[in-house]
């Protein structure tokens, strides 16, 4: 798994706002190896979603380069699948027709696309719910439908922007088991954006900690917990040590973020 799959080199992104130019991301460089699971963690507003959007080819106007399998990303890339924070299921379609949608667009016949969709529905633990509509499911189940719909494409690289942010902690940890199993079965190169240290340590091979604005790489921590992993690992001493180590770095950045927000509120009031 030492082959490099994704290279982010000197990426900077600035936005012009009424208050002036905001440097959201400043000279970020990192690499993701083939089959590796990397999480990016950082305080609110540090530029995580900006990195996600740049990598997914959803925004232009940045400096630096993003390459996937040696190819420069300059728009949505066929090797990249994305799962978003906001719910993105189609409410008028059943689970199976949500998951099969990308295959339908490709012109795959109904029997074949339903058979493939069933495989991924099973993988995310939703067998038996194929004929339900999203409104009949919990938030966590709907996010799993969105994940299955991205996986059905069989993207080589999976980008996820806080897909489980709205869920309670227990559900999130248990869903982590599904993600770990999927990662083990498909060996996709995966990047997860998250606020949550537990989630980052539970799932990742490496955790990249970002600084508060402008977003840079503060540190990358190797998570040397054995694989295959399950949520059992969350109770181990080694897990606790990683969480404490990452929190130590993150606390500094989160405090800067908080001070910045308070200062902005004061300025607005004055
Ligand atoms: N389209 C935009 N126009 C202007 N400023 C933007 C835009 N997108 C992001 N920003 C600014 O860039 C900075 C980084 O934003 P970004 O959404 O990437 O952070 P984040 O770490 O994902 O935040 P959160 O964790 O709260 O989602 C913020 O200061 C934000 O206000």
UniProtKB/TrEMBL annotation:
It holds the Pfam family ABC_tran. Signal peptide: none annotated. It comes from the Bacteria. GO terms for molecular function: ATP binding; ATP hydrolysis activity. SMART domains: AAA. The keyword ATP-binding applies. The keyword Repressor does not apply. Keywords: ATP-binding, Nucleotide-binding, Transport. SUPFAM superfamilies: P-loop containing nucleoside triphosphate hydrolases (SSF52540). Belongs to the ABC transporter superfamily. PANTHER family: ALIPHATIC SULFONATES IMPORT ATP-BINDING PROTEIN SSUB, TAURINE IMPORT ATP-BINDING PROTEIN-RELATED. This is Nitrate ABC transporter ATP-binding protein.
């Amino acid at each position: 798994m030492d082959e490099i799959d994704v290279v982010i080199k000197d990426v900077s992104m600035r936005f012009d706002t009424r208050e002036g130019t905001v440097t959201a991301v400043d000279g970020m460089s990192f690499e993701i190896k083939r089959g590796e699971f990397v999480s990016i963690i950082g305080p609110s507003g540090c530029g995580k979603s900006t990195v996600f959007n740049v990598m997914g080819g959803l925004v232009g106007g940045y400096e630096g380069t993003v390459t996937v399998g040696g190819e420069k990303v300059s728009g949505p890339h066929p090797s990249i699948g994305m799962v978003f924070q906001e719910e993105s299921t189609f409410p008028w379609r059943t689970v199976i027709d949500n998951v099969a949608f990308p295959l339908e667009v490709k012109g795959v016949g109904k029997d074949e696309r339903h058979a493939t969709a069933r495989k991924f529905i099973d993988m995310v633990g939703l067998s038996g719910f194929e004929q339900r509509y999203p409104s009949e499911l919990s938030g966590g189940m709907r996010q799993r439908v969105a994940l299955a719909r991205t996986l059905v494409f069989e993207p080589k690289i999976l980008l996820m922007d806080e897909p489980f942010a709205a869920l309670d902690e227990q559900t999130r940890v248990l869903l982590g088991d599904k993600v770990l199993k999927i990662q083990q079965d498909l060996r996709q190169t995966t990047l997860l954006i998250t606020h949550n240290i537990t989630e980052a340590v539970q799932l990742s091979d490496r955790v990249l900690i970002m600084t508060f604005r402008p977003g840079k790489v503060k540190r990358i921590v190797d998570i040397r917990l054995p694989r295959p992993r399950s949520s059992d690992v969350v109770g181990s001493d080694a897990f606790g040590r990683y969480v404490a180590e990452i929190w130590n770095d993150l606390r500094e950045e989160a405090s800067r973020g908080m001070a910045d927000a308070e200062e902005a509120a004061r300025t607005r009031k004055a």
